[in-house]
Amino acid sequence: MSCPICGKVTDEKVRPFCSKRCADIDLAKWLGGDYRLPGEPATEEDFDEAEREERRNLPH
Element (H or E) spanning 18, and its range? Predict the structure, then answer.
């Protein structure tokens, strides 16, 4: 298996990466929004519906 960031051989301690540095680079990409799921952006209605659903699932 090769590191998804640099292509080097992975290290079991930080798998699937080769080093902590590459793991940190990957984390920064996630936090920076570089990785995204395809689809339409969420709308206010989506958030409102999710909030209503969450309230319905709370214990009374």
Answer: none
